[in-house]
Amino acid sequence: MLTVMLQGRRVTDRVFSPAQLERLKASGAELRINPSDANPTPEEALRLIEGAEVLITSWGCPPLTAELLDRAPRLRAVLHAAGSVKPIATPELRSRGIPVTSGAAILGRGVGEFALCTTMMSLKKIALVSEAARREGWWAFRSDPLRNSIREMYGSTIGCIGGGNAGRHFLKLLRSFSVTALLADPTYTPEQARELGAELVPLEELLRRSDVVVVLAPELPSTYRMLDGARIGLMRDGATLINLARGSLIDEQALAEHLRAGRIHAVLDVLEQEPPGDGHPLRELPNVVLTGHIAGAVNNGLLEIGEFMADEWLRVRDGVPLAAAVPLERLDWLA
């Protein structure tokens, strides 16, 4: 079964290990791998896709236009070895009914795990504690305002904005702790939230009640700067805002004003402009931790996507449904 890897070889080698490529070949895949390190040009994509029965795409691939799809009339599936399929999905792809899968669920698990990590570190005030321990010596058991502000998971209220792949996994992880989990997501019913161990509440209520607010919502026109100055102002004193979604979901100037007041803290994996320019207000504040867009897979974690794509390829070969088929008709709601 002719299987075309459209992305540049640099991406292929980061997502698929040699063992995974051999596994595909041993399972019956006739691999045609883009040999160029760079993203494929339109001309290269037309040549590569010729006759493909399975198409594997990833970061840097072009949209799958009618011109490209016409070159592969026997195409059975598109396996997107990356997160969002929006860069490649076109109306033509949807109209032809070609099933599409992606690595979004795999990346979402990693983001959910990082959400748990940053939640626990935020409650413990790790960044401020680390700096104080270096500056003032070991704390032992003495009491001071910073140490007195430390919280544990037990009895805390954790708010999750967005119940997609990352949000679902995060909420499942929270079930191992004695916390109150809140979810704000307009696509959920209260029953669906309860299945994840969470209480479905309006966004404003979540902000008022939570010790930690984790933003995991998709970047959509309706979510642009959904956390403006007024909503950030609803957060309780000492709470932490964690953004692992996209920078555009938060009004950064308003957030900076709240942070300068010293009332809340923030952990930001994403900013609206990446990398941020010199003098960006959120780079200078002591109550902000910036993690530089590492929430998802960065290095070895990418290989889990390759493993999952190999599993999906076997499902295509065997004529069984894809495990992570993307509902293209709901693309406007997806991250």
From TrEMBL:
SUPFAM superfamilies: Formate/glycerate dehydrogenase catalytic domain-like (SSF52283), NAD(P)-binding Rossmann-fold domains (SSF51735). Signal peptide: none annotated. The keyword DNA-binding does not apply. Residues 120-295 form the D-isomer specific 2-hydroxyacid dehydrogenase NAD-binding domain. Keywords: NAD, Oxidoreductase. Coiled coil: none annotated. PANTHER family: 2-HYDROXYACID DEHYDROGENASE YGL185C-RELATED, 2-HYDROXYACID DEHYDROGENASE-RELATED. This is Hydroxyacid dehydrogenase. It comes from Paenibacillus thermoaerophilus.
